[in-house]
Write a structure and sequence with these properties.
homodimer, about 400 residues, alpha/beta, Rossmann fold, Dihydrodipicolinate Reductase, domain 2, 2 domains, seven-stranded mixed sheet, six-stranded parallel sheet, 14 helices, about 25% strand, globular
Chain lengths: ~400, ~400
């Protein structure tokens, strides 16, 4: 199979864009040339000749020479517009914008079918780990049971600094920001939204279901205090922010949640900006994928692999979408459920801040001065519907 | 994309074959039926009705209803014959016989081209880890630098028991045999042949080169004694049997070797029968794949994934074979080299048992009673050509 020559138009020339340019110019197997790079600020000094750049998106989107649009910008609304127009104009697209992709999964799927163009986004999920490709190509729907993993590099970096180096939350966060692992506005990461976006993408490629981000419960690490940290330490455990989805019969449950993990879990060994994903499949066998999950280079390597795949005509087949209907006995598709009981540590200030009636069972109750916590079992649906989980004195950690 | 219905003929009904049967009968997405199972011993009691079984291989090989032959037997000569005849008769084939595959890589490649049938063998390399598929589909030749890993579950099990539980070699080996991780004749594993066979398969899918097993230097763990083990312990390290291949310019070097590893290496954390493979690619990013590497179930899960892939018409494209020529500047293909210097610990009894003249440099020399060792740098070509490495008092461990 011969590879196609590709002509690229790139949106954005930050770290990923620049790294991509360098690697492409060093590589002679990959027949790829960059024709134009669309940037926002024409006056910024650039490492390339001005003729490479434009500030007019249409110079790329409507250039018939350009086969592939690589979208690497920060603005999600603009990104979706670029991706959509590029596909409507028959161009293949590579993107790593997880929020944008998770928020428009169904439209993006339809655009691919309608305009018969590939849209690849390995860089949007666990950066360098080829998890989408493995779910898409290797793990059959019926053979796949669950995915569980650390899918956000910046929060894992923060948690590592807290637990391994005794740093406090804000010092760890600043350090992550300095190293470029966390955004200037870290809310998407530390509140657990970013892992939720990735979970939406994983759910589509793992189980063939379209799930809106707002239908998934997420809880972040921003309310983690010294009391919680000591609690974990006393249990000889550490805390990891974990995204989980699991199929049971015709239903799939999914959530993002900080969890106590100890030496028994492979995720304990995932430090700093690394991501780790455990895929459990038939014969109850677990595969573990590890790689860097934040930073421009790991994302760049995934974008590059997508470009390389396009040169062979690769596209996601989304086979699971059909399978999720065909393989069910009653012929109805898999669906998301919130009907699962979670065992959690819930810390609160006083009884008015929590509704213990939401719990199926309270196993432990602790009180000391201003701090109280329970360890109990609560249905995910109640957790998701409750208002009290948003209280500033509430923190939740999954325990098992 | 709709999946094809497949009719299977299976050779061998041991653990993998039986597990496969069970999973296939539980799965309704995969439209696969087993028509016939060829066994050696007709008198053994079986869990299925006799009509499923035959002792005549031609009942499968010449049955026009059978699309896919699954070869799961222990006899390599018979296995090659079965695989070859099946492909000549237009049947797709799945196999996990690493020695047979590594020994016939080029013929098996040619058979696929000539008869236009797919031949898949994910189970032959690191059992449950989808490493062949990832190399084949995800890692472009030009972007791939090296592969390094623990690819043999039984020796890793033995080394874990020695280092973590202070067992001696023979106790650890017996335990591995009892658990079914090591063969009754463990020579292939403990002498490092099995990882070499896997390395041959990896070299083809990673770099597009055909390498005969006899061209790769392998050293096993069978001569590991207490002195060596203490040496590793004093260095706060453990010993792992590691297969390595790395591309430098137009050349690739490859070898199998026990190596000292410490906490800095991700391979330190791979215990018992697990395998771990580190793939280093463009942007110097490392991906780490972990999964069970021995036992019938992990192999069965890989065989099952191959069968599932066949239902979608998947086949290995062997793209790297072309690339290894096309992408080189001087237009010649990548080639295997032995021209690389290795830093090793070499333990011996007396000076006549080793030729220290083979070393480029000796950094350390130690002598105490009957035991001597050097730490030095030696070219792989000299190691491979030397007779002294086969001496019973010689042990080698890579150090870095």
């Amino acid at each position: 199979m011969r590879r196609k020559n590709l002509t690229l138009g790139i949106f954005g020339f930050g770290c990923v864009g620049q790294g991509l340019y360098e690697v492409l110019s060093r590589t002679n197997g990959l027949k790829v040339s960059i024709k134009k790079i669309c940037i926002k600020d024409a006056n910024k000094e650039r490492s390339l000749a001005p003729l490479f750049f434009t500030t007019n998106k249409n110079d790329i989107l409507y250039d018939p020479d350009i086969d592939v649009v690589v979208e690497l910008i920060n603005d999600d609304t603009a990104a979706f517009d670029i991706v959509k127009t590029a596909m409507q104009n028959g161009k293949a697209v590579v993107s790593a914008s997880k929020k944008m992709i998770a928020g428009h999964l169904y439209e993006l799927y339809e655009l691919q079918q309608q305009y018969k163009v590939p849209f690849l986004y390995e860089g949007a999920c666990c950066a360098s780990i080829p998890i989408i490709r493995n779910l898409e190509e290797y793990y059959d729907n019926d053979l796949l049971h669950s995915i569980e993993g650390i899918v956000n590099g910046s929060t894992n970096y923060i948690l590592t600094k807290i637990f391994d180096e005794n740093k406090n939350f804000s010092a760890a966060l600043s350090e992550a920001q300095e190293l470029g692992f966390a955004e200037t506005d870290p809310a998407m990461d530390i509140e657990g939204h970013d892992p939720k976006f990735k979970l939406c993408i994983l759910l589509l490629h793992a189980f063939g279901i379209f799930v809106k981000p707002e239908h998934i419960f997420n809880f972040g690490i921003e309310r983690l205090n010294d009391f919680d940290i000591n609690y974990a330490r006393e249990k000889h455990a550490t805390i990891k922010l974990i995204a989980t989805c699991r199929k049971i019969g015709d239903e799939v449950y999914a959530y993002v949640f900080p969890q106590l993990v100890n030496g028994d879990s492979q995720l304990t060994g995932i430090h700093n900006e690394y991501n780790g994903v455990i895929v459990e499949s038939a014969f109850s066998d677990k595969q573990f994928f590890v790689g860097k999950g934040a930073g421009s280079t790991p994302t760049g390597s995934a974008v590059l692999s997508d470009i390389s795949a396009l040169s062979y005509g690769y596209r996601y087949e989304y086979r699971k979408i059909g399978q999720s209907i065909l393989s069910r006995e009653e012929n109805h598709p898999l669906r998301l459920t919130q009907h699962v009981a979670l065992k959690v540590y819930a810390r609160y200030g006083n009884e008015t801040e929590i509704d213990l009636g939401d719990f199926d069972e309270v196993h432990e109750k602790y009180e000391s001065g201003e701090t109280r916590f329970v360890v109990g079992t609560i249905p995910l649906e109640k957790l998701k519907a409750s208002a009290w989980v948003n209280g500033k004195n509430i923190n939740l950690i999954g325990v098992s």
